[in-house]
Amino acid sequence: MNLVLSLTNVNEAEWIDRLRALLPNRKIESWKNGVSDPEKVDYLFAWKPDPDVFAALPNLKVIFSLGAGVDHLTSLPQLPHLPLVRIVDADLTSRMTEWVVFQTLFHHRDHLMYAAQQEASVWKDHKQPAAKEVRVGVLGLGELGLSSAKALKSLGFDVAGWSRTPKNVLGVQSFFGDSHLDDFLKRTDILINLLPSTPATQKLVNAERLALLPQSGALGGPVYINAGRGATQDEAAIDAALTSGQLKGASLDVFEVEPLPQTSPLWKHKNCIITPHVAAPSDPQALSEYVARQIKRFEQGEPLENLVDLEVGY
After folding, report:
1. Which terminal residue of the chain has fewer beta carbons within 10 Å of its beta carbon, N or C?
2. Which residues form the D-isomer specific 2-hydroxyacid dehydrogenase NAD-binding domain (predicted)?
């Protein structure tokens, strides 16, 4: 029951050491360093893998994705129709919730304005709406979206969520399906995007949908926050909305192309917070334990958890 790792831009040695400690009776190897016996490999742990790895491992049984997102795998035509397990981990969820709450409060409490005033040595207060007056909308009510929605609700925000299917979350208004997306956007002052990247979500946040966000909300204009996937947004539309003032502000952690090119106009906006895909970094210890636990479940005949539906892409 051997395991191979194919990880791009990741310190594989750190992961291999942890997995070997957790799975001492299995051979664990790096794809890029060569696999000694490809026919005996049952598991692949992948992040933006070499597409050739699938054909080279003929008896592969399960694929694990490093991270919550799986579009780096589902977008590959070489991906075999095998069980694909995404990462759902309390540490990752907590980190994402922290980032989302921080960015929401950053805009809610007008920190950009006060930072500019500090630079100019200006002492001036501004009217502060209560959290209950601010309508937050979370696009995507999966594990990460639900955690963020609940945390924001606990702070007093008026929270709603939009998802592909109905969700029942205490205190969070549920919108679902394409027919309810416009109504969801029209009631949202701070739009938080935690959608996965699928064919149905490509550039879902575009100029037409940004224009539906209300200008008359408690913040004096809408705010857009994205820590989901860059492919779900139209960056030219975001740039235009920030330039025109249609968007009061934005916080972006993910982009269509990463690293974000230096030529991107998004860098220049003083009302746009940019972070380099760090909202929920993967913790090697926590995620290695998760993978080891799933492998042991599989070998004991128990069902794998958090399987990806390859038809919908998450």
Report:
1. N
2. 105-279
